[in-house]
Amino acid sequence: MTAAPVRDHLRPLGLRDAVAAELIKLLTVRSTWWFAGGLAGLLLLMAVLDSGGGTASARSLTVGLTAVSYFGQYVVAAFGLLVITSELATRSVTVTFAATPSRGRVMITKAVVTGVAGLVLGAAATALGVGTAAVRHGELPRVLGAAAEQVAATGVYLGLLAVVSLGVGALVRRSAGALTCMVLLLLVVPEVLHLAAERLDAPFLDTFVGWTPAQAGWRLMSGEWEYALVLGVWAVAAVGAGIGVLRSRDA
């Protein structure tokens, strides 16, 4: 008498329910709010300590670029990879797979939720930092339009970066290893390519430097929106690779 209702109750989650479940998980763990507070704190601190370098008409706009490039992107990278590596480490991901047996759907829902979260957190923190710097330097009315564009671009960059990091986390499966890979990708790979271009007299390698996530992110935040496509390719490739690894390995 009760078998049919039980089977109905245990049916796999649809995409909409899976996204809702991932959102609940993300919002109810403390680490999400630590990352959000850390990112906002970094941007605010940079705004307070900013000495006003940059062009005379847009000093505050350097705050977002500098803070995200030197610090903020690593915070978001750590946030993105922990979305998956924390579940793999504790094996709580087995519950997720029980509710949503399709591992591709699990990764896609995580990518959607993580990307949106990175976008919102990145845009909000950038707005706080750039707005504070603009008020300090008395240039808010002059830079309002450019600041709004930079806030949007930074949100897009950090949202896509979080998705890239999520994919790397699924590939490596360990937080320390995944974070090391992200630091190498963001910091070391562009420098190595640039050095190789100089030493080997191979200027075409500098073209590849511009396609690495950190450099593409800098250009996107500087107003070159076409680099969002470059970051989108990185995100799709990372998530696709993560799906392949999740399907081929046990949880």
Written overview of the protein:
This protein starts with a helix and ends with a helix. The protein contains eleven helices and no strands. By secondary structure, it is mostly helical.
Largest sheet, described in full?
none
Using only CA atoms, what is the Rg? 20 Å
**Succession of helices and strands:** HHHHHHHHHHH
- Count the DSSP helices: 11
What integer is the average pLDDT? 87
Shape, principal axes of CA atoms = globular
Q: pLDDT under 50 segments (min length 5)? A: 1-8
CA(first)-CA(last) distance: 34 Å
Q: Kindly state the number of beta strands.
A: 0
Helix content: over 70%
In short:
With 251 residues, this protein is mainly α.
Keywords:
251 residues; mainly alpha; 11 helices
Task: Please specify the SSE layout and strand pairing.
Layout: H1 3-9, H2 15-27, H3 30-49, H4 61-90, H5 93-99, H6 103-136, H7 140-172, H8 175-199, H9 204-209, H10 213-221, H11 227-248
Helix pairs in contact: 2-6, 3-4, 3-6, 4-6, 4-7, 4-8, 4-10, 6-7, 6-11, 7-8, 7-10, 7-11, 10-11
